[in-house]
């Protein structure tokens, strides 16, 4: 099926407020490479979390939106992630609640990690899933806040 961008996307403000709320619906889901959370046992990976949040918010759907067929191994994955971010999001200078963060985990191997930035009464948070773990919300503090991240606003 072709890519479908929904005809009347919500305003940017709605996306920024809604993305962390929708992402929190997946807290506790287990990690699974290329998982897309059809149900709890299907799990998610970091890209899958962004993909299902975008679909749930009515942002986009289809194979151009949800790019699969990658390996979490660095070669190829970083290029797919960067192209996907450039195709669907606008770069911003600093993190804000609701944006997507792309962290550099290992510069030598070009290994990346994605998260949705949230907020609570203590400051910024990040909602993400790490290999071998589950979807969590953690403080956006060192070492994460020092990992050379780029930040992306839903277009």
Brief write-up:
The chain has 3 helices and 8 strands. With 155 residues, the chain is of the alpha+beta class.
Using only CA atoms, what is the Rg? 14 Å
Q: What is the molecular shape?
A: globular
* Multimerization state: single chain
What's the β-strand tally?
8
As a percent range, the share of strand residues is 25-35%
Distance between the termini: 22 Å
Low-confidence stretches: 1-10
What proportion of the residues is helical, as a percent range?
25-40%
Q: Describe the sheet with the most strands.
A: 6 strands, antiparallel
User: H/E series, N to C?
Assistant: EHHEHEEEEEE
Secondary-structure content class = alpha+beta
Going across the biggest sheet, name each strand in turn.
3-8-4-5-6-7
Counted by DSSP, the helix tally is 3
> Roughly what is the average pLDDT, rounded to an integer?
82
Molecular structure report:
This protein is an alpha+beta fold and 155 residues long. 25% of the residues lie in helices and 27% in strands. It has 3 helices and 8 strands. It has helices at 12-24, 46-56, 74-88; strands at residues 4-5, 60-61, 89-92, 100-106, 111-120, 123-129, 135-139, 150-154. The strands form 2 sheets. A 6-stranded antiparallel sheet has the order 3-8-4-5-6-7. A hairpin with a 5-residue loop joins strand 6 (123-129) and strand 7 (135-139). The relative contact order is 0.21. Residues 1-10 have low confidence and may be disordered.
């Amino acid at each position: 099926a072709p890519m479908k961008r929904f005809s009347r996307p919500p305003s940017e403000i709605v996306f920024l407020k809604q993305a962390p709320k929708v992402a929190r619906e997946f807290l506790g889901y287990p990690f699974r490479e290329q998982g897309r959370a059809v149900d709890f046992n299907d799990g998610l990976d970091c890209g899958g979390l962004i993909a299902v949040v975008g679909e749930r918010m009515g942002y986009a759907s289809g194979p151009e939106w949800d790019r699969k067929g990658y390996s979490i191994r660095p070669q190829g994955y970083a290029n797919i992630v960067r192209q996907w971010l450039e195709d669907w999001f606008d770069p911003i200078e600093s993190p804000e609640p609701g944006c997507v963060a792309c962290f550099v985990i290992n510069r030598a191997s070009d290994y990346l990690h994605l998260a949705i930035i949230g907020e609570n009464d203590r400051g910024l948070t990040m909602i993400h899933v790490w290999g071998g773990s589950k979807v969590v919300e953690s403080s956006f503090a060192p070492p994460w806040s020092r990992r050379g991240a780029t930040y992306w606003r839903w277009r």
